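Dear colleague,

As promised, here are the two records you asked about, laid out in our usual form so they can be pasted straight into your sheet.

NAME FIELD: protein one
SEQUENCE, THEN STRUCTURE:
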Amino acid sequence: WNQALTWRCFVCALTATFTVNLLLSSYDWLTTDGPHDTTLLSNPGLVSFGAMTGQYRVYELPLFGVMGAVGGVLGALWNFLNIRLTMLRRRYVTGPPRRFAEPLFVAFLVSLVMYLLVALLGECQPLPAVVPEGDKADTFTSAGAKAYCATGEYNPMGVYFWSGIEDTIKHLFHTKGVDVYEPNLLVYFVAFFLLMCITYGIAVPSGLFLPTICCGAAYGKLVGELLLSWGWDVNPQTYALMGSAAMLGGIMRMTISLTVILLETTNNVNLGMPIMLTILIAKWTGDLFNIGIYDLHIELKHIPLLEWEPEKNLLVLTADDVMARHVHTLPMRPKVEAVVQTLRQTRHGCYPVVDEHGVLLGTILRRHLL
């Protein structure tokens, strides 16, 4: 890492932010009626899940730690399943026709599962008299929320499955004062966990960050609601955030960056300590089973990447353990025939150049000889 690369990243990030702002602001200009300022760039497109007002008590920190450990196990399981599925894809989903057909099949499968779960397991409930603070009003009045329900009712499964992913996250993070049916959350978590595993890796540009937050929020909200039903004085919204942190730490194994991102998107620095604790425990627990999902895919694709720290089995090795016993060398003035023969017999990328006494004079790259 160097200063030039830092500047490139900085300029690229600013350019991307400006481009998103310009496009979204232009869309606002075209869709807004009445007079408006067409030179005002006012829509940066930043992801925000709304300010979290939830607090926690000291005795809840061990609970967050347990959630992190469970999140680490779940993340390790998710990584294992996804990498096995990716290996099957590399073996059987080959060629443009199959790679084109797979996303169509996955899209149909995801849509079918979501439709059936809402249709078969959704139970209508009366609309809350007052929309919970911090939630969006259309969460309870959208087409998904009204699926198979009469006027004045909403379908919780429709809210989970048929709302946009950002709206679902906000709903899980902020909804309070509404009766939550725990089996619905459990079904949503399990279904989303498996569908996310199937979807990640298909031949379309897709992300993992928001789906992991949504899946973790369902897990955390389920834990919070269960504790609340057992008589604990807890805030399920805070547990939804901790569940997201646990799943992110368990799947991605990043620490500082995830903590900062979650603090930025929730705008509550008071939750910094439990978030960091949950992510660290999730990472440490997941590392007992495998490495992060991005590292697994890097290894699967054989992309050369030098880690910050060597692996444990490399700490006891010396240069003698990896050196070749019979070194292929080139003299200072070799014959063309000798050079061609050396290149044909070996696949080394670099060769030592020696004098007549075998003393090293320098090295020469294979591509220079070619």
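NAME FIELD: protein two
SEQUENCE, THEN STRUCTURE:
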Amino acid sequence: MDGEVSAYEPSGPDRVRLESEKTSVEDYQLKELRQQKQALLLKIKAVEETKEAAKTPVQGRNLDFGVLIGKEGNLTAIHHTTGIDVSMTFKDSQGAGSPAVTVRVIGDKIQHTYIKAVVLFAEGVFENESHFVYYPSNMTTQEVEIPVRPMRDVQTDVLVKAFIGPQFTQQFHVFEKELLLPQFSMLVPIKDKMPLADVPKSFVGLHIPGVQQRNIWQWIAAEFLVHDETWVLGDMDMVYWKSLRHDFQPVVLKVFGTTGKLCIYTNLIQVAGDIVQALTNFLHQKDVLSECYFPDYEEYIAECFERVREQDKACMAIRTDIADHSNLIRGLVVRAEDARLTHDMSGVRQAYKSLHDFNLDLVKGYNVRCATFDSQQELQRQLNMAVQTFSKTRAGKHRAETVASSKAIMEDDTATGHDLAMNMRGRLNISAWDPSQKFSKIS
């Protein structure tokens, strides 16, 4: 079939739009190519300056201008192999270790590169989510330790930016590295064994079938700061820490041989709950039941529960008084109106005076009721938080069951604080979790 096909370029607004889109794409690509060219030129220049700096020694220093003056005018060059190494270490302070980010210059073959400043970026570690450390020109160091103190026990990525260069330079090379801050970095490991008398009496006991000791050590190495591998893989069934956040209170983990039982001895129930949640997640255990013994915290829960009940009774008494006053006020209003209709002005004055007194009592009762309600809400909030904290010592459905049973007890008018505290314990057998028990090491 013979024929002819013709095509025409658009005219008017459509043509202008197509041309502008084509131009914008070309301009964007050209801009990117120019940026890449500029970056490559800067890299080539830096490499050339570094080679010259390695060959040419520094001839003098101009302290007035605060720069290094070399033979070729090279002020900021560093060796091309120079970089930084970042790690988590322990900074000793008055005999107590604390976590610190260590930044160290590596690969500096001409030995004239120093750390000028370090910036740390991390969420939930610093007050303003960043920490800046600056060193004056007269201080030359190739290794710095920056103490860190996380506000919560969470695993956090820390971005480290280090500014390095010659001692008196005003322009610096910036190196970036990321560092993983373990979840329990505020628990300081203790190498020496703790006397059994110093082991806390409060504990959380878990039974995880099939758990092996090497899995526990792998978890410790991943979630804690350790001195070295020998401390983690040593021939021991108990591991000791001290909490920096809680005045160096001890935390002890014991593995009961091949029984699948392990126990966390500590008076810090919040820390114990976080450890249980982290461990069960690492071992991929969905439902884990525990036995808990925290007598001080149980007493606190029972006290909160009893105070909530007392506040409930006080609010009920206030509501009853308000209802009585309301009935009396209605009667006084009727009496005042009757006195007015009979032109008994003395009775009217007496009725309204009584109304005024009752209104003042109502206002006072309302203020007391508001204060009591606020106090009751705060106590209820503390009680709910205590239940949630206790429930974290269990995992999966057992944690949900603990919360549900606790709510049922709190809604029961006949229940007491002791009932709520005993519900948290579970089926407790204290002798089964004696830390003095000996078991053979498993692999």
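A couple of things worth noting about protein two: Residues 58-74 have pLDDT under 50 and may be disordered. The first strand starts at residue 58 and ends at 62.

Best,
R.
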